[in-house]
Structures are given as C-alpha cells and as structure tokens.
From TrEMBL:
The keyword Translocase applies. PANTHER family: CELL DIVISION ATP-BINDING PROTEIN FTSE, LIPOPROTEIN-RELEASING SYSTEM ATP-BINDING PROTEIN LOLD. This is ABC transporter ATP-binding protein. It comes from Arundinibacter roseus. CDD domains: ABC_MJ0796_LolCDE_FtsE (cd03255). The lineage of its organism: Bacteria, Pseudomonadati, Bacteroidota, Cytophagia, Cytophagales.
Amino acid sequence: MIHLKNVEKVYRTSSIETLALSNINLHIQKKEFVSIMGPSGCGKSTLLNIMGLLDAPSQGTMELDGNPVNNFQDKALARLRNEKLGFIFQSFHLINDLSVLDNVEIPLLYRRSSARERRLLAQQALEKVGLSNRMSHFPRQLSGGQKQRVAIARAIVGRPEIILADEPTGNLDSAMGNEILSILQQLNSEGATIVMVTHDEAMAKRTHRLVRLFDGSQVL
C-alpha cells in the first residue's frame, strides 16, 4: 500500500544542510498497524509527513497503491490526501469556535459533500469513538482524551484507507492512552491501515510491527 524506496530528505538553508532521513526503504502492507519509534529529532515526523503526502523526499520514491507520487501536482496530492488518508496529531488541532460535530465535518467540506451527508457521516464517526453525547459541545468543554477522540472521528469521517497518527497518546495519561490505542486497534480490525509514531514502547508492542529510526536511518 505505501512503499518508500531509497528515500532521503534534506532540509537546506543558505548556510546549513540538515539530513533528516537517509536511505529509508519501507513497505506498509494493506491492513497493517505499524509503529515508528526513535529518539526526538530522529526523523519520525518527517517520515510520517512524506507518507502522508505533506512533504516530498529529496531523493528516492514514494508509492501509494503502486502509483509513484513524486511528480504529482499539488491538486492531485490534495485529492489523494482527502480521499485516502486520515491524520491524527498529538495536539488535536481542533477549532475552538466550532462545535465537536462541526470540527468532524471539516474534511468533508473539501469533497463538496451535501450538508445532510456531512452531518450523517460526522455523527456516525463520533458514535464510533463513543462521543455521540458530546456533539454539540465545544473543544474547551472536553478533556484531553475526549479531544483526541474527536480528532480520531475527524480523521475517519471520510472513511480513509490509511490513518497516520503522530504521537496520538503523547498528551494523555496511561489510562486514556490505552483507550485511544484500543480505538485505533478496532479501526485496524475493520480494515484501516495505520502508521503510528510513538515514544511509548508498550504501545508500540501492541501493534503488528515496529520500525525504529536513529539519526534519520532505519535501525535494522
């Protein structure tokens, strides 16, 4: 499903060159749940951004469903992100002035879905994460764990094939972190392919496979 071959990422300024990723070769199979671990600054989020089509490799190739995406134009990349990918972030990235239901609907606006369809799909996504009784609340009225569940509902509202999660339990206590991981495991059992960046070894061991990075390279 996701295939990276000889991927390198270099960030350059006028005076500094930083190698973020070096010679990454990684294949994520359909319906896998894969964890990515490594110390801070080792390239985990950069790798996730490349897989999520938010960044492009400096060298090497990235394929999605067997199709090389390196030369895709911005419009085509945006369409793929909206149709195939769901993103979960450590910091939730909810809009405080919108209700929970309106936050979850946001990805569907880019698909030009009807208001009725947006509302129905958002309600279904919130029911799936156990927040059907919080639809009219605002983010400031929620706990950290509830905010993350809203973020998961937003990620899955478009029924993406792939979910990319960047430290989804990083801001939560262990009990709530376990709840969030259980939701991700359930989504995986229903067919979603999941790639999760984490610092938590215990969480990583509950996924199918662990990929370790160190200084931008895979630890083999």
